[in-house]
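Margin note from the TA: students keep mixing up input and output lines. Inputs are the sequences; the output is the structure of the whole complex. Example:
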Amino acid sequence: MDLKKVSDDEKLFLCKRYFYWGLALLPFLWLVNVVWFFKQAFIRPPFPQQNLIKNYVIYSGIGLGLWTVLFVTWQVVFQTNRVAWGASGDYLSFVFPKGYA
Amino acid sequence: MLSNAFASVMMTHSNFRTYLIAICVVFVPVLIDGQRVADQIYMKLDSSTSQCFRLLNGTHQVGCQSKENGNTGIIYLVESSAELDAINQDSGNYGEYIVAIDARHFDEFASALQRMPSIVGVLLMQRNSEPLGSSGISEDAACPNERTSMYSEDAAHKCDWNPTQTAAGVRFLDWTKPIFLIDNATEIDIIVKSCWETFNKPIDGMARAFPVCAATLTQFMTAAKDAPTCLRRQEMFAGLSGDTTLHLCDPLIDENIIAFLPPTNKTAKQMFEHESVFVLTARMDSFSMFSDRTPGEESAISGVITLLAVANAIGQKREQFSSAARQRKHYLLFALLHGESLDYIGSSRMLYDMNQTKFPVEASSSVKDQVDQLTIDHIGFVLELNQIGSSGGEHFAHVDGTVYSGIKREKIDTVLKDTGFSLADDSNTSRLPPASYQQFLKHSHSIPGFVIGDFKTKFNNKYYNSFADSDNLNAAAAIDAITKVAESSLKAVTNWVANESTGYTIDRDYIKDLYDCFITKKFWDECEILKRATTYLENKAIVRQKTTYIGTQGSMEARSSPIKRIVNVLMVGSLGEKLPNVDTKEQCGHLSGLKKNNMYSYFWQLDLLQSDNASYCYQSTVMQTPAQSPAFLIEDYDMTSGKYSTWVESVWAPSVGLKLFLRPPPRYSLWIFLTAMVVLLVSMAICLLLHRISPLLIDAHPGADIGDPSL
């Protein structure tokens, strides 16, 4: 979809929809929101819907930041502790290394 | 002008064919020399190498591991700690090392080799012609089987039966690097002379410049961390990894050989009574970190031969013995146990089965004449034959101090007097050496008994449970020792069970033959008796190898432990009777299938002491009972508890190998890379040039020259 061909109302509608659907534990929607509408929200000269779009982009950005922290923390914790967790570590894994713990 | 030159070189249709043929003729001689580049670089040494493999138990992994593509390092010969210092300094900037070390020095430097991270592999060289020196080498711990010993709770008393320089036991270190054992003299010379002295040995204290001789050792083990982990992963990840079964590790499993004399018969009301059974036991197995290097001559075979001699003597007078025993309502149990060196696999399972009243077999409603189940309170005495053959001649009886200072003292003394041995330690703090008898006492702390061994406070055997436990005994002295112990044990057994000791004699020639067969000869089927014994055994290539290791194939008869299969045949030959009317192998097999009774087993074999070819169906009370640790049977058994053996063996990847090559200076890689970049740029330039002048090369009017014979 090319944003150039879409009306500003439609843009606001999309941005809002992506934000709300992202609340259903879908952080990638928020990532899309931030990347796609960044230019619209902050770079483009003001237009009527820009304030609301800006808000949604900011909220998506905050949510994205929280999810990133969450993912990174979990990755670090899992990678460093998987071996020490023994059986639980294996139950959380899909693949395991052969020959090494 | 340039374009005209190119035009003249342009290939027409017929010229092209000529050029193609010319090219092939020029290059064919080169192509026919089909030696792979890899073969020109690497020299493979694989004629007799043996590799260290990984075992795992409830809490640890022990043994070796290499990277999947092998561990590579510069070969360095170590003979003293000076070389280890040189490796630490790494003045030649070699990076990683593969240490070549003579087996004589291995025990001394084992801990250092295991600790140093710059050493990524070990080549152990054993020249068969040289003795291993007075220091010896044992792969077992200073206190063997400490985890499952009956004294494991009592940390105060020091346990150091086994003289080894590595207290934890070389086999029980987690090496995380491959160790290869080489005993082929040619290959050892290649490593020491062609590789080390020519390229790697420092000259005047200065490290040699590149090129240096390097090696790659490949031996990849798939299991890791500990036994519960690999067993769990085998179950959990099967299916996800593509195959329906995932094979990472196998529990150690085989069978014990037992025989009751006389047999019990519930139907005839011939049953065990309280303390009516005399157990004569010996251990069949040994181990080593190297696959197929477990001769166990003094560790295990010496005791086995002794027990076989006693069985043979009693078997000669089987009827007399049986009727005398029946009058007294006493029984004799021969027990040759497997897996004892790895935390008492055989004996712990035997006692577990006894507690479940499943020993030797479960009671069955469909069998008419069936054996009685043996439980621990039926046992009246345990006599164990530990290491017997070391020169020195004197043998000692070992008792547990608590049992000996209790009410059973008299019973022990009576049997002791019959054997004529003296106690190693008669105080109330006396401890048993690592022995199966310990497992009996763990279950019932009042069974009288003792362990006979050729040592008093420390093993005489400097090669206890190791790859080098062979060719160390003096044949004449060992045979004398075995005969003496066999005679003493025979007297003790016959007095206790049958209340008579005359009329039974140890056949010294039988002991000599067995010693020759098991110990002197290089393979187990080179002498008459064992050649006859292995006649009907399947898979003879495996049976002839001198392996006493329990292994993992117990459930598949044709691949199960060689020592067990041979001992089975020998026991049947000694204790069995030939059935007169059974003339073929099939009829004999049919008898075991009938299951009219479970007192007897039926085996088709040659008469071991004759030289004819006649085979007979032997009916005997010799049976095989499972030697698999109860840890794998009990549901939700806590593998970290140390109560039973939890040893499993890792599966290893098929590509195993040792190869030598010359490593060029590291700068070469840089030069090769730069050359490649230059070639790449030049090729790109040529391609660009060709692209630019392509109109000259390719005819703009196709079809103009084709078929024109003048061009």
